[in-house]
Design a protein that fits this description.
The structure is a homodimer. Chain A has about 220 residues and is of the alpha+beta class. Chain A has one domain: Pnp Oxidase, Chain A (Roll), CATH 2.30.110.10. In chain A, about 20% of the residues lie in helices and about 35% in strands. The radius of gyration of chain A is 21 Å and the shape is globular. Chains A and B meet through β2, β3, β5, β6 and α3 of A and β2, β3, β5, β6 and α3 of B.
Chain lengths: ~220, ~220
């Protein structure tokens, strides 16, 4: 991530809340970049017992988010009953300031509010599941067996439009009080990137089956 | 993470919902380990406009979670008005199955439901802020300047008891249908650990100020 390349400069916290579909190009691009790098979102619902926040996979498909799961999933059934809030957060690094008060993390987050709708058309659903697999592992749909009719019926897919979207970014270095700058306390940023490890092959396959390039070269951005 | 050390074995998905304070030792230990490894939680609230899910730092302090932020924060003010749901998710790796349907991620998550309460006593608040800094960077409280009275007043700290807690873990390898096992499609797990990068020193400090060991050796677990 960029913070590992440059000295920890002045911090910046930027928040934009936009109905991005109705706005100029900056906001969607920034929201899309974060959503495309993320893997797991947190879906918030209101239930009779209060709020519930559940992690799940997602994919961005143009100007909507796709979510999927078992048709039996309480999350997915609840998610079409009322408004949802879907949040994606990427943690980029720790910010160590000279004062405890100014410690922080560098992060990028997207919060999406709206009403999710179920995709019922089988062909649209198949296409959405392809998008979900490609969001997880770009290149994978060319290899993996596609869903059969039974699997398709067992899967619920929801779409949430990217209309009401909030983007928040904190980057840069420590923001200390002027009177703290001479304290003999190390300050700076510790980047916390996600770095893929060595692939672990399934033991039930031939040992000479090559690891695909999209696994060997896997990056989230 | 363990999945990088061993062949991708049979998958397991375990869910436990427990009022852990009233239960035997397994559940708290498992929830605590996940909470102690995590850095950012997602707090879900119910507002007049529907659910809101906000990422924020947290710390586990015994059998409660601590959250903090500006006293002006809408999140923190809303979080004491009604029940909240706080979710922490660690993504361990990608699970590539032979079929698109069985693709998954290995992850560990903790979901906490309850009523957060504000900590107002100044000494209890100072202690809580120490716990929050130590959760971010163990060892840091010995070096960083502690909050002064003004900073203390500007900070709201909430405590959420770990009473109603759900732990969910997916680990192991791909779970394919028997009839797919002979497909010539690579299957396995790609670990996705967070690997700290090189520390980036603040440019306003003497170049010879050494990087503390707790930064050089930083690990999330």
């Amino acid at each position: 991530m960029s913070s590992s390349e440059a000295p920890a400069g002045p911090p910046s916290v930027r928040t934009t809340v936009r109905r991005i579909a109705e706005r100029a190009s900056y906001d969607p691009a920034s929201a899309h970049a974060i959503l495309d790098e993320g893997l797991v979102c947190h879906v918030g619902l209101v239930t009779d017992d209060g709020p519930v926040v559940i992690p799940t996979l997602y994919a961005r498909d143009g100007d909507r988010l796709l979510l999927h799961g078992s048709v039996a999933s309480r999350l997915l059934r609840g998610a079409t009953d009322g408004p949802v809030c879907v949040t994606v957060t990427l943690v980029d690094g720790l910010v160590l300031a000279r004062s405890a008060f100014h410690h922080a993390v560098n992060y990028r987050s997207v919060v999406v509010f709206g009403q999710a709708e179920r995709i019922d058309d089988p062909e649209e659903k198949r296409a959405a599941l392809d998008v979900l697999v490609e969001a997880l592992v770009p290149g994978r749909t060319a290899d993996a067996r596609r869903p059969n009719d039974v699997e398709l019926r067992q899967t619920a897919v929801l779409a949430l439009p990217l209309h009401e979207v909030s983007v928040k970014v904190r980057d840069g270095g420590a923001k200390d009080e002027p009177e703290d700058l001479d304290l003999p306390v190390w300050a700076g940023v510790l980047p916390l990137p996600v770095v893929p490890g060595a692939p672990v092959p399934d033991t039930l396959q031939p040992a000479d089956l090559p690891v695909p390039p999209y696994v060997l070269d896997y990056r989230r951005r």
